[in-house]
Design brief:
3-stranded antiparallel sheet; alpha+beta; 39% helix
């Protein structure tokens, strides 16, 4: 009679941990585009950052387009300049350039042209 409540307690403790185990690894950038044409940036719909931790061992910026994603080196100067000069992406810019002084240099350089 006591076995049913004990089984139920064990089941409620074990099931949530099993739910966190994915059937396949999360999609990660395995290769980075080091160069790209700047004109593609006008078609970017969203930008996310892949940190170098856990399963994904490359720090990258993912550019999301309508039908695909492109992984770009997180230290790409052209990409960082673009991120820092667009209000929509300033949060990601500050995340990637924290402590480097990059945004001020990049914005001053692009405004002088």
């Amino acid at each position: 009679m006591m076995k049913a409540p004990l089984f139920f307690c064990v089941l409620t403790l074990v099931l949530p941990s099993l739910g966190g185990m994915p059937g396949r690894p999360p999609p990660c950038c395995t290769e980075l585009a080091t160069t790209f044409h700047r004109h593609i940036l006008k078609h970017v719909q969203n930008v996310t950052v892949q940190n170098k931790d856990g399963v994904c061992n490359i720090k990258a910026v993912l550019l999301h387009f309508k039908r695909r994603k492109v992984c770009v080196d997180a230290e790409n100067h052209s990409l960082l300049t673009w991120l820092c000069t667009h209000k929509r992406h300033r949060k990601i810019c500050s995340l990637l350039t924290k402590g480097t002084g990059f945004p001020r240099k990049a914005i001053a350089k692009t405004n002088s042209h």
